Amino acid sequence: MILGIGVDVVDVARLAAALERTTGLRDRLFTPQEQEGRAIHSLAARFAAKEAVAKALGAPRGLGHLEAEVVCDDTGRPELRITGKAAEVAYGLGVKRWHLSMSHDAGVAMAYVIAEG
């Protein structure tokens, strides 16, 4: 059963400017694994995924961006690793599985998340 759906769209150039302008922002938004060798459009898609997770959970207060991490399995397929308060909220809702789709084109990145119970 679908317990939550979230979608988010990110302007790649706007995120790039924010990361360049704000010292330490990259480390507040992305785990070291997410940052490793990633181009800005890939980071933008990951940021959209984090925002989409929050929306799928009902946008509760107090979630941190590092609590939703995009990791890739052995085949390169993106998956979500949820920790901290986000994991607590997901557990409370009965989330058992996450589905993630990300894409980027023409200066825009997007992510779609489904929380399944």
From TrEMBL:
It comes from the Bacteria. Belongs to the P-Pant transferase superfamily. AcpS family. This is Holo-[acyl-carrier-protein] synthase. Its EC number is 2.7.8.7. GO terms for molecular function: holo-[acyl-carrier-protein] synthase activity. Mg(2+) binds at D8, E51. It is found in: Cytoplasm. The keyword NAD does not apply. It comes from Nonomuraea typhae. Residues 4-102 form the 4'-phosphopantetheinyl transferase domain. It catalyses: apo-[ACP] + CoA = holo-[ACP] + adenosine 3',5'-bisphosphate + H(+). Its cofactor is Mg(2+). Its main location: cytoplasm. Transfers the 4'-phosphopantetheine moiety from coenzyme A to a Ser of acyl-carrier-protein. Keywords: Cytoplasm, Fatty acid biosynthesis, Fatty acid metabolism, Lipid biosynthesis, Lipid metabolism, Magnesium, Metal-binding, Transferase. It holds the Pfam family ACPS.
